[in-house]
Amino acid sequence: MDKFVTRNEKKTADLAPAEKSNAGSGSNPPKSQPKRKYDEAYLGLGFTVGVVGADDRPVCVLCLKTLAADSMRPNKLRRHLETKHPKHINKPLDFFRRKLSEYRQQENQMIKSAAFNRNAQMAYFKVAHRIAQCKKPHTIAEQLILPSAIDMVSIMLDETSAAKLKAIPLSNDTVARRIRDISDDLEDQLIEKLRDTRFALQVDEATVSNKDCLFISYVRFIHSESVKEDLLFCKYVQTRATADELFKILDSYLIEHDLKWENCLGFCSDGAQTMAGRRKGLQALIKRVAPKAQWTHCVIHREALASKQLSSELNEVLTDVVGVVNFIKTRPLKARMFSALCEEMGADHTAVLFHSEARWLSRGKVLSRVFELRVEIRAFLEEERMYDAAGKFSDEQFLMKLAYLSDVFGKLNELNLQLQGRDKHIPHLADKITAFIRKLEVWGRHLDQGNTDAFDNLSETSETSTSGATPVIPCIKQHISKLTELFQKYFPNNSVQYDWIIDPFNTSAPADFSSAEVDQFIEMTSDSTLRLRFPVQTLSEFWLGVQ
After folding, report:
1. Taking the model in full, what pTM does it have?
2. Residue 238 carries which DSSP code?
3. Quick check: 22 pLDDT over 80?
């Protein structure tokens, strides 16, 4: 008798708390039902086995219906066969084996079909991404890309493989939706990175096609121990592009995506009053909500402003060149005739380029192309009986001024490109500006000696001139002097102030550092581990590591 009591007490101890109370009250505890396993003999009743979750479930090979797990009993399986499929009660085992084989084959086809649909989805996402990158019309996918892909696959592989490509949906609307999906996903990833990190903004306002006004914002932030840069948004300005309207667009975007103004540490823009105004400009509005944000005048805008002014003599040459270019380019017939003339004369180019004030590299490229085609342009103007304009392209002083302008704006274009790109920081850009100012000073001293070697086109033209470059040197020297003055005005800070950032281990602490900052600087520059890391890391990676 004692053994039964002991056994019951052991069972009670193993029960859950709710079950213990039931056991103590005298009620019968629920018995756990053992799970039945599938038997091969069940195939004779028309059933195979399928797995749903962690349970084995009987599956009818005739109607493909999946029964409950507790139906894994011969009597329940036989009842299903007799009630649902009475015509197949006395079928032999081979009949059910054939049905099982058909079921397995159908199951494999469904798996392959699902895998193919996933591949097709990935394919049209990649096609949509390439169309967006190339800025092509969305209809190009259905009209060109897909037919071309089908032709290539049918020729290189077989018609069966080519037929599979037809399942890829590439209609105009589908491509547009996929591009929006990709854009939304990239934006979500960027916003997720920005939510808990500090960032700096760079904004600009641009007019497109003399009608649409766009407000563009870039963002720079720290992610994965490196500095990242990305496009934040590009929005249409519906009304006037005032500081209040631009701030409303920027503030609404940050609020909509749950970004905090407290994390904004920097703001970069051009020097327009709308952007840079200290009282009513966008700079002032941003500083009200982000007191830590420091405004920076865009280096590229400053370089463009410094190189914009010309003397009256050089500006006259530029105006004449623009007039000739417009005469050729704005008339299709003239453009075709000029192209035919260039081909006949064996020129390297067959067209001149448009000049646009909104494009900073435009002026240098236009002048260089006109200088290269100066002989062809003169011949064309003579054919068009524009003898006054053609005579200027025969004037030695005009050609030397044109040669100088093409040279100096080519050098300014090189500087402009050096100031662009990723992972550019103020110390690096200050070095480029300082180097260019020093070059201007050297070029001015060389011109005092009559030396024009720094300007290739001018030097080449002066060699064929009877009087050399002497008549135009005063005009050129005046422009070089003015250019130097403007660069020093727009870039007053000397690059020496950034030496402690570029090379902290060989530079003393700046004089404007506080005592605590000097102590921190000394501790950092005395750290041998940091000294070893400095040569093998980029500037941003090193200072992020120090931080």
Report:
1. 0.69
2. -
3. no
